[in-house]
Amino acid sequence: MDHLLVTGGAGFIGSNYVRMVLRKELAKKVTVLDALTYAGNLENLKEFEGDDRLVFVHGKIQDREAVDIAAKDVDVILNFAAESHNDRAILDPDAAVQANFNGVCVLLDAARRYEHQRFLQVSTDEVYGSTDDMFREGDALEPNQPYSAAKAGGELMVRAYHETFGLQTLVTRGSNTYGQFQYPEKLIPLMVTNAIDDIPLPVYGDGQQVREWMHVDDHARGIDLVLRNGVPGKAYNLGSGCERVNLDVVKGILAALGKPDTLIRNVQDRPGHDRRYLMECKSIRALGFDPDVNFEARLEETVKWYVENEPWWRRIKEKKVEYQAFMDQWYANRRG
Ligand code: DAU
Q: Could you give the residue ranges of the DSSP H alpha helices within 114-235?
């Protein structure tokens, strides 16, 4: 696996994965295919400007021509590209289907045609729906939202390419992820950056929803473990076991920044909002996955990163169409 194609490599988890691979010299060459839509950002890969191990191709995974150019000479594809925000997919389900389902089909076709060694699909715990217990890998897929339903569809096509064409596929179902370079529409970076600016922190419903939080460095490591050591045809749960109530996460952020809880606003809930995610991760643990379980320390470190990298997120938040228009449209009708 000398040459990796990382789709969505300018996004949050994708760029962190590319950084890990190049810093640790886990591959000789990485091609990134990224559409640079609102969340893709070449600044995330600035560290490798001028590094000829990294090749960038601009394009969507739904675009056969772009995929052909990017996929021709690689050994494996890792698909990080997605429309990944639940709230945006509620406003525009079709965009989620285009990227999370149609795009996966185009990539699978290329992997088959070019006889790639492996194809890894970065998926999500959300394909299972919501649970009071734990999601296990054999559980039914019962997604509740347009984003997660489209991701589940993508996974099913991956499975079909394995069963029908013998493609060596792998799937990772990652839990909620946080860390450096996360677009500030997701819970943690949104709350951190709003709090820095003393802008209200919008908490959906009663704020008692539970998520399993994993640092992006662990997410990247877990994906690489599955790529190299996973059993083709299998889907791997990938989480940390760190379950936290949303409101406690938000209060932790405010405490880390020395800001008051009065900034919190309970706003109208997200429709179809999953109450709780938690996964059993025996299979990936058996491959040697050992995530950091000190969530509070990693959260503080993450808050510090946003404090120290203010120009990075301020440039994003200043964008009228990509950022502010969505924020206005989504949050305007959710006042508490
Ligand atoms: O579980 C993995 C998934 O985690 C990934 O597949 C998704 O791409 C990723 O976006 C994330 O989905 P969530 O919907 O859980 O993440 P988000 O950061 O949007 O929200 C986390 C929790 O915080 C969720 O219960 C909704 C809540 N929330 C979120 C926002 C943006 C709020 O209460 N207020 C907010 O303004």
A: 146-165, 187-196, 216-229
